[in-house]
Amino acid sequence: MSTIPNATAGTEDFEFAALNEAKNYRAALLREFSGHLSGKVLEIGAGIGQVTRELLQNRAITKVVSVEPDAAFCARLRATLPGHELVQGTIQQLKDEAADWNSILSVNVLEHIAEDEQELEIYRKKLSRQHGALCLFVPARPEIYAPIDKDFGHFRRYTRPELQAKLENAGFEIIKLRYYNFVGYFAWWVTCCLLKKRSFDIGAVRFFDRIIFPAVHGFETRVCPPFIGQSLLVIARAK
Length: 239
Fold this sequence. Notes:
By secondary structure, the protein is α/β, with parallel strands linked by helices. It has one domain (9-238): Vaccinia Virus protein VP39 (Rossmann fold). It is built from nine helices and seven strands; from the N terminus they run H-H-E-H-E-H-E-E-H-E-H-H-E-H-H-E. It has helices at residues 9-21, 23-33, 52-56, 71-80, 116-127, 147-152, 160-170, 182-194, 202-222; strands at residues 39-44, 61-68, 86-88, 103-107, 133-139, 172-180, 231-238. It has a seven-stranded mixed sheet with strand order 3-2-1-4-5-7-6. Strand 4 (103-107), helix 5 (116-127) and strand 5 form a beta-alpha-beta unit. The protein is globular. Residues 1-11 have low confidence and may be disordered.
């Protein structure tokens, strides 16, 4: 099952608060996926709707359906986006056998799922009729798995070869698979592994997002993709 058994509301709340400050980071991530988000899009793990709002503003997308297992987050999302189509539960509760999904977006969700290979197989089945695109973003590098990862309910951080093998075994053809946020790798190691901090400094997140990240992301996308990073970014096509 796609569950998040060991995540807590408190850690999720400050994770959402940090994500809210990471405006440049979030916009850059969606730009990476933009060419593959169109038509009918299924959003996995909508949280409180911070990414959902931006998907709904994308003119290439004709329909967005969001899936979120946490009842409290669903309530907040419904209050923010009344009328938006939201499924409370996991992808297994989505009754859409006849649906033709063009894209699935999963941002920082797969690491919460114990049976991640089974989850990827479900994504491939949902996309197979349209040979749709999976836009996937996950934490990277098990050597920087920290106490805060456990607090968030992360079962793992991925290596590139591990994720590639799991995607190919699930029936995906990989279009792009690269590490993301080189500087963030070292910042996470110092802050969360060495100092063992278990919360985010919102001011530090804002500083990183406004000052450091634009330069780092520009270098990674225009000059040289990083050989290591805090996260992995994937675009894959369902066979």
